[in-house]
Amino acid sequence: MNTARTGSLGVIFLTVFIDLLGFGMVLPLLPLYAQQFSADQAGWQLGLLMASFSFMQFFFAPIWGRVSDSIGRRPVLLVGLFGSVVFYALFGIATEAQSLVLLFVARIGAGVTGATISTAQAYIADCTTVEKRSKGMALIGMAFGLGFTLGPLFGLLAVPSGQGAPGPWPGYAAAIISAVALLLAIFRLPESRHEGSENAGKSILDVGGFKHAVATGSIVLVLISIFICIFSFANFETTLSMLIKGGEAAPDSPFQFEWRSICLTYAFIGVTLSLVQGGIVRRLSGRISDGAMAASGAVLEVAGFLLTLYALQAKSVPILFVALGVVVAGFSFMQPSLNALLSRRSDPARQGMILGVGQSVSSMARIVGAAVSIPMLKADLNCPYLVAAVLMLVGLLCVLLAARGGKDYEPKSNA
């Protein structure tokens, strides 16, 4: 374990935070951008747009993870940040040109070069002990939460009046912020992989590593848990903007939020995510097992989805915000704990590859969730959240089985 580099966790946190600031700026507005360009009543085209980013991440996360195992984490993270600069700028151009085709290209390109979160997770794994692994993984969640907090507030600058269609500046501003993150990484982010790694010079596509991931029973159970949990959350995440905007986006919705309120809602989600992961999860890590943390998160998510359904029936904004807080708190407990379990059960020599497989599973869950949740919302306002609640009950069972069905990775003895 390269404990001498634990101080670099602060730099990786700042790098991921600034990059995700741009992501948090664009995501709340993405369904509304697409609605501006398309009259797709069934919602399939919009669902595909939301899924395109995750679809590319599904394929490229293991590749980037494997590349980072071979050449190091730092160059992969730099490539990802450079891609963010290019494709967020293209996102702004697509908005100005009112081109749905360019919007698809921008999201697909961002998915290819942005599939590096698993590399950031591997960077953290390089710099932390097994006992502190979940605490380190919570840094990614904190960065994501802070990005969601400040990103929507920056996006709000695109529509100062709080009304009307958004302009191109969320994309341009995200590109500028990603450029700042790129410069920060160039000058301040050291390499975490030690020289002489046994993976140096091996092929990018480590079929053996992938087979190891899917052939190890305890890892498979963790991957299944990740898929179900992320899919359930994607039903909520993908439809939220349309649900709270109402009007043409969701004609049956009892909520009619303006642009300003939509951005502030996502900022509230980001604050909750940051506070829970930074103030609670990191404090509890090491005191409570990763399995218990993940199971607690699953229970909270079920409760949150049921509260969302109740808020819709009661047409209550306060209850909706309570539901949002509970769902996000559950996700905050669950995501870093499952990633920590996956990391602890993986061969350190294939850490990037296997965490990349985990990121691919997350991406596939978001692909399916994004593709089906918007049509479900169009068909019945309650459907995405009812499906999410039921599946999370299955996810809870999978989490419990995954926690009890394996142990930390142990190198084979040569004796």
Blueprint of the fold:
Blueprint: H1 9-26, H2 30-37, H3 44-71, H4 73-97, H5 100-113, H6 117-127, H7 133-155, H8 169-188, H9 207-215, H10 217-245, H11 259-284, H12 290-314, H13 317-344, H14 351-379, H15 383-404
Describe what this molecule looks like in 3D:
By secondary structure, the protein is mainly α. It has one domain: MFS general substrate transporter like domains (Growth Hormone, Chain: A). Helix content is 76%, strand content 0%. The chain contains 15 helices and no strands. The protein has helices at 9-26, 30-37, 44-71, 73-97, 100-113, 117-127, 133-155, 169-188, 207-215, 217-245, 259-284, 290-314, 317-344, 351-379, 383-404. The longest helix is centred in the middle third of the chain and has 29 residues, at 217-245. It is globular, with a radius of gyration of 20 Å. The protein starts with 8 loop residues before the first helix and ends in an 11-residue tail after the last helix. Residues 196-205 have low confidence and may be disordered.
Total strands:
0
- What's the alpha carbon Rg, rounded to whole Å? 20 Å
The share of residues in extended strands comes to under 5%
Q: Main beta sheet: strand number and arrangement? A: none
CATH superfamily placement: MFS general substrate transporter like domains
User: What structural category do the secondary elements indicate?
Assistant: mainly alpha
CATH architecture descriptor: Up-down Bundle
> Which CATH class applies here?
Mainly Alpha
Please, what is the oligomeric state? Answer: single chain
Gross geometry: globular
